[in-house]
Design brief:
about 35% helix; 20 helices; DHBP synthase; alpha/beta; Nucleotidyltransferase, domain 5; five-stranded mixed beta sheet; 21 strands; about 625 residues; globular; nine-stranded mixed beta sheet
């Protein structure tokens, strides 16, 4: 037996992953254990978890693979500051001491941290470093169901690369094209995220969710002034408008002058049509760049399969349009496409590239990610012990009765916390750590946003749909187990708007029911779809099937089990605290069923202000 430990750390979304004999065994983000969103610290808890899942000690691993090369990153910082001097001195003064003190000596820092996990492990000759984008590419290709694929990675920046193209064949993965910093699609999107008043590295989802409320009226201006896009999809960003290379902000005054507004202060003024139009415009530009690039790659390499990773690959609206476009017959996106997934990719690159082991495709059409259910799971006895210790009042039912109780609560329009099976790896809750609701309810979106999630009212919710019923409800008949494809609700299920409703602007559109399942139908009739498969999550499949038997609807609302600013819950205690701090009506943990009315009111927490807003 041969085990490889993969680690990503020190930037954002630190994580650990373990593969044994080439198979993905476990993976988790550090934030889930520390309860600090996007935790960048050394992932000690995640490492201890993935090793315990395999019954291994640190001494047992054949190699430890880190997800990027710190020296190359340092070289890029220095070269960027020198090229732009004297601009950027304030940023230089802040960044360089941190690098000299800590990041430059990452190898010794990693060994020191690992020593705290195991005194006896000698890892000096076992430590390997993969390039950042090779880690992304490996995470996209090796678990995919394809024997051969074009692999596209897009993010903010790794060491130098911001966009790469690789070709995967068998166990080989070869980089063939790169775009380098400061030209970055991820940083363009983050610049507009910053400009519209959201937090970089977490607010990009909000910009994507806001886009359908606006019109892309700045698209041509962006493509004229900000981006030089070539016919092959390669691009350059005009640095006159940006400040991220050497400054402490993403955009500069020239950017604000171009669009005629100052940067929106976070959480301040109301979002208005301008901000929605900016969101729509950067989304449209992003889609055009990706489509141009992907069409050119399909033409050049004549391979029918595309794999994707990197933060930009989480743009599920663009992914849906890529699939519809048909340049590639099949698309597979790594569910942990951001930096957390780099831990998994680094381990797989070490296994196949450095150690030369063959690649074995998963059986059937499935990928090698096990539905992304790669985190901790709890036995029923442990759940009951933990809930009792937390002061929870619950009843433990048979599996059949628990499913019936859950489906009944959903049909009664209750918000249900659902904690079952292994925790998901990546940013999406996929029916392991989810809050569920009735998609037929016209008030469910608003209720969940304002009373449960404590987040902006405009943010859409995703549907989980039984795979076998998908085509009847959505304009898509393709596996989407990781909620990474957006498509429209079927015409037959849509409700056409009245002339009066058509004239509404922006957020006013929010409360107009657009379909038979209004809670998951966005203002443009789209939805971010998760298909639920009996073989990867049988229990979740049973709950939705029971809901369908009661209502005729094979769809439930699925949002992550957390409040705004909080990482997704990891333990039964996390779930109980979140349940008591919100207006959720019912909580299901394993076979334990908790109803809000039965709980001790003194255990209620102020969850609305507990976490720093994201």
């Amino acid at each position: 037996m041969s085990a490889i430990l993969g680690i990503s750390a020190f930037y954002h979304d630190s994580a650990a992953a373990l593969i044994v004999d080439g198979q993905v065994i476990a993976a988790a983000q550090e934030e889930r254990f520390t309860r600090k969103k996007h935790d960048a610290s050394f992932p000690r808890h995640a490492i201890e978890y993935v090793l315990s899942e395999a019954g291994l000690k640190l001494d047992d691993v054949e190699a430890v693979a880190f997800y990027d090369k710190p020296f190359l990153k340092f070289e890029r910082l220095l070269e960027t500051y020198v090229a732009n001097a004297p601009r950027g001195f304030r940023s230089f003064k802040i960044a360089i001491p941190v690098w000299i003190k800590e990041k430059l000596f990452q190898k010794s820092m990693l060994l020191k941290e690992l020593k705290q996990i195991s005194e006896t492990a000698d890892l000096r000759d076992k430590l390997m470093f993969a390039e950042h984008h090779m880690s992304h590419a490996a995470s996209a290709y090796y678990p995919s169901p394809f024997e051969e694929a074009v692999v596209l990675t897009l993010d903010g920046v790794g060491e130098w690369a911001t966009t790469t193209v690789a070709i995967g064949r068998g166990k080989k993965l070869e980089m063939v094209k790169e775009i380098h910093f400061p030209h970055s699609l991820g940083l363009l999107y983050s610049a507009v995220t910053y400009y519209t008043g959201f937090k970089v590295n977490s607010g990009e989802y909000k910009v994507m969710g806001l886009a359908p409320y606006g019109e892309p009226r700045f698209k041509d201006l962006m493509l004229d002034k900000l981006v030089d896009l070539k016919p092959d999809g390669s691009f350059r960003l005009n640095q006159e408008y940006f400040n991220y290379a050497t400054g402490l902000t993403m955009t500069n005054q020239k950017f604000a002058d171009l669009f005629g507004r100052p940067v929106r202060a976070p959480e301040s003024e109301q979002l208005d049509q301008f901000h929605m139009d900016m969101a729509a415009s950067v989304q449209a530009v992003t889609e055009e760049i990706i489509l141009t690039m992907v069409r050119a790659l399909a033409q050049e390499f004549k391979i029918p399969n595309l794999c994707m990773a990197g933060g930009v690959a989480l743009n599920c609206v663009a992914n849906g349009k890529l699939l519809k476009d048909g340049a590639f017959k099949d698309i597979w996106v790594q569910p942990a496409a951001g930096d957390a997934g780099g831990a998994l990719g680094a381990a797989q690159a070490a296994w196949h590239q450095e150690l030369g082991h063959p690649r074995h495709l998963p059986a059937g059409k499935r990928d090698g990610m096990k539905g992304a259910y790669l985190g901790p799971v709890y036995k029923q006895s442990d759940i009951e012990h933990r809930l009792s210790a937390a002061g929870a009042v619950f009843e433990s039912l048979s599996e059949e009765d628990m499913i019936e109780a859950t489906a009944t609560a959903l049909a009664d329009e209750q918000a249900v916390g659902w904690f079952n099976g292994r925790m998901e790896f990546g940013p999406r809750a996929l029916g392991g750590r989810s809050i569920l609701g009735d998609p037929r309810s016209e008030s469910m979106q608003k209720t969940l946003n304002l009373k449960v999630k404590f987040r902006e009212s405009f943010r859409p919710f995703a549907p989980s749909v039984l795979r076998e019923d998908m085509a009847e409800w959505f304009d898509l008949d393709y596996d989407s187990p990781y909620m990474l494809l957006v498509d429209r609700v079927q015409d037959a299920k849509q409700r056409k708007m009245t002339a009066e409703e058509e004239n509404l602007f922006g957020i006013e559109k929010l409360n107009v029911a657009r379909s038979e399942i209004p809670a998951i139908t966005h203002v443009d009739y789209s939805a971010r779809i998760q298909t639920v498969h009996e073989d990867t999550n049988p229990l979740y499949h049973k709950v939705i099937s029971a809901f369908k038997a009661k209502t005729g609807c094979p769809v439930v609302v699925n949002t992550s089990f957390n409040v705004r600013g909080e990482p997704i819950v990891c333990t039964p205690e996390d779930a109980f605290r979140c349940f008591m701090g919100t207006d959720m009506d019912m909580l299901v943990v394993g076979r334990a069923v908790l109803r809000k009315d039965n709980q001790d009111p003194s255990l209620k927490e102020d969850y609305k202000n507990k976490y720093e807003l994201d």
